[in-house]
Amino acid sequence: MRRFLNERLALHALDYQVPRVTISVKYMLGGLTAFLLLVLTVTGLYLSQYYNPTPTGAHDSVLYLITRAPLGDWIRSLHFLSAGGVVVTVTAHLIYTFWRRAYKKPREVTWWAGVLLAAVIFLLIVTGTVLRYDQEGFEALAHFVAGGNLTGTFGRFFTDSFTPSTSLLSRIFGLHTSLLPLVLLALIGLHFWLIRHLGIHTDAGDGAGGAKTGVFRTHTTRLAGFGLVLFAVLGVLAVLVPEGIGFPPVAGVEITKPFWPVLWVYGLENVLGAWGMILGPSAIFLFLMVVPLLDRGADQTPGKHGWVGWLAVLLGILIVGLWAYGMFGEAREHVGM
Fold first, then answer.
1. How far apart are CA 298 and CA 332, in angstroms?
2. H or E segment at 18?
């Protein structure tokens, strides 16, 4: 059977050499992110079969999914937990890649593709929150409307004036289940293609200067093992701590806090108002995109970023502080619901 599959699926193509150090977990963070995105895709496809993306039917369809659809409660909880997991892995991957300065020539485009991937994942998180369509989801929808109004023509898609033919909830559902996943798939393809052809960036201290003494098949086999363990942990957690849903939304009040990865934006909104949700993520995204242009020296020693590194540390401390402020501070009204 193994020979049959090797011949027909060209699995021998996975036997190209890679640095042996890539079998360590720190070099698998990107692969684990891709694995969790696969879990999110499969579970999301199942959830979409039961979801009614209309203001009058969304909340009831989620209740039906939880209470009556086969394995619906577990799959929805697994989807929710995997979303949190992918935030952890992609953030860790981004930080470790930044630390190793793996964005330097000739890998600038690889870095930019990764930053865009992280941005799309962030958008998937916030659009997915809307689809809950309980009070938290309704308030997230109100933030989209407020952001659309603040940004004028650029944000018109997120306002009711875009078209009277469909609700904004339906358009966000389409964004979450079609457009953003297509962009994500294209970026993943570009990211992996560049890694394959430019090679995996390794440090001089990572075993014989990153000598190519292993094969990629070993990397993928070990990655699959870690992925299955992670899936098992999330699957058990989905049983033990299932994700609930709040009451149907009530217009005119703003009393909830967002999903934990977005709490730092919520904290910034406490300071700057609704503009915080636009300025904060935009500033972080812009900084990450220009990092390869700011740190262009020949030296590639990990951690030796100079002032760029100190700026990154400052931004990291600011994000953690805002996250704590959003987490432990009182709930506030930001968009004048």
1. 48
2. strand 17-18
pTM: 0.92
Identity of the residue numbered 271: V
**Residue 18, φ and ψ in degrees, nearest 5:** -140, 160
* Residues 6 or more apart in contact with residue 3 via CB below 8 angstroms: none
Q: Spell out the residues 6+ positions from residue 193 whose beta carbon is closer than 8 angstroms to its own.
A: none
Consecutive 10-residue averages of pLDDT for the chain (337 residues): 72 72 86 97 98 96 97 98 98 96 94 98 98 96 95 90 91 97 98 90 58 71 93 98 94 92 97 96 98 88 91 97 96 80
Report the DSSP beta bridge partners of residue 215. Answer: 17
Long-range pairs for 181-184: beta carbons < 8 A, 24 or more residues apart:
181/41, 181/124, 183/120, 184/37, 184/117, 184/120, 184/121, 184/124
Distances (CA, A) of 18 to 21, 65, 138, 206: 8, 44, 48, 12
- Three-state DSSP at 214 gives strand
d(CA 21, CA 27): 8
Q: Using CA of residue 22, residue 26, residue 31, residue 32, what is the dihedral sign?
A: positive
Residues written for the chain = 337
Count the alpha carbons within 13 Å of 241 in the hemisphere toward its beta carbon: 5
Which contiguous run of DSSP H or E holds residue 334?
Answer: none
Domain ranges of the chain: 18-255
The residue type found at 61 is S
Give the three-state DSSP class for 126: helix
Token couple for 283: 């500033």
Backbone angles phi, psi at 152, to 5 degrees: 65, -130
Specify the CATH number of the domain 18-255.
Answer: 1.20.810.10
Q: Please name every residue paired with 214 in a beta bridge, in sequence order, or none if there are none.
A: 18
Q: What is the pLDDT of residues 104-153, one digit of tens each?
A: 999 999 999 999 999 999 999 999 999 999 999 999 999 999 999 999 99
